[in-house]
Every structure is written in structure tokens, then in C-alpha cells.
Amino acid sequence: MLEGIKVVELATYMAAPSAAMMLSDWGADVIKIEDLEGDAIRNAFTGISRNKLEGNPMFAFDNRGKRGICVNIRSDDGRDIVHKLAR
């Protein structure tokens, strides 16, 4: 349905990542851009997982099917990377 569409996601927590997940489910190429420390929700709620090394299962669910990159968007080089991905 959305094959050939690229989505660059600069979002955290759940609402926007969930929306981008649906776009990925429909065939879009979603690239999640995280800060160097990663999405804050990545390590939240790890107690609900059977294996604490697996991290947050909600994060895994909302980000399935996406490609990901960590970028320092506070630097000129990092912003250049984001701009190139958005083209």
C-alpha cells in the first residue's frame, strides 16, 4: 500500500512511534532517528518483560519493521545526516 514511501521519524514515547509503526506495517520505509542516548522509553517498563535484557516490549512492538539510527542532532554533522535522510 505504501511501498516506495520513506518516513523519517524523529519521535519518542508512544503516539508518533505507534503511528509510524502502522505506516511501516502498510509498507512504508520508516527510519527512526534517536538521540545518542536512545529513545527514553527504550529502557522504561523493563520489568514487564520476562527477560530484563530484552528491554521494553512496548518499545519493540512500536518500532517493529523500522530501520534505526542514533544521531547527535545537536551537531552540524548530525543535522546534515537527518537532512540527507529526509530528502
Structural notes for this entry:
This protein is of the alpha/beta class. It has one domain: Crotonobetainyl-coa:carnitine coa-transferase, domain 1 (Rossmann fold), CATH 3.40.50. 32% of the residues lie in helices and 16% in strands. The chain contains 3 helices and 3 strands, in the order βαβαβα. It has helices at 15-25, 57-62, 76-86; strands at 6-9, 29-34, 67-70. It has a 3-stranded parallel beta sheet with strand order 1-2-3, with helices on both faces. The model has no long low-confidence stretch (mean pLDDT 90).
Chart the SSEs and their pairings:
Elements: E1 6-9, H1 15-25, E2 29-34, H2 57-62, E3 67-70, H3 76-86
Parallel strand pairs: 1-2, 2-3
* Structure classification: alpha/beta
Strand order of the largest sheet: 1-2-3
Give the low-confidence spans: none
Mean pLDDT: 90
Helix percent band: 25-40%
**Number of helices, counting only DSSP H or I runs of 4 residues or more:** 3
